[in-house]
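job 3f2a | input accepted
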Amino acid sequence: MIIGYARVSTDGQTLDSQQSALQAAGAEKVYAEKVSGAVTDRKALAKAIASLNAGDVLLVTRLDRLARSTRDLLNVLATISEKGAGFRSLADPMIDTTSPHGKLIIAVLGALAEFERSMILARTLDGRKRAMERGVRFGRKPKLSQFQITEALQRRGNGEPLADIGRSYGVSHSTISRLNP
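job 3f2a | predicted structure (181 res):
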């Protein structure tokens, strides 16, 4: 069975041309919605994928109707594949998981997306190291100054209740209890 999926971004746009093209290409049922492609929680897409059975095909008119990024595309295609179904795009014949050539293209896209992600992680790690060498501190700003910490530790050592110490600095008693001498 061929299941169609049509999407436009705004209410001012019409789904008619997509629905007609999908039906002309053999879609027996077409799920349609008016929602931005940037939204990952698309109800009609979820219903279309849920309706797929092994051997079915999800069909779109153009790839950008399904996904906005390679990562999003690969996630959707993985979900479709888990159901034993295929995917085709009318305007992008190379993206066709029902053919060996299409499966190769998807594998290459997946490898490129994974490579891109590893490059981003490497650049981020390198940037963090350089920032730390310059003295940049990461994480939340401490709630207490070094003077306040010293004073609080002294008060704690004198037996003053943690809740009273914390209240005087505007922090909880547990913040005071975590201070290391």
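job 3f2a | Helices lie at 16-24, 43-50, 70-82, 100-133, 146-157, 162-169, 173-177.
job 3f2a | closed
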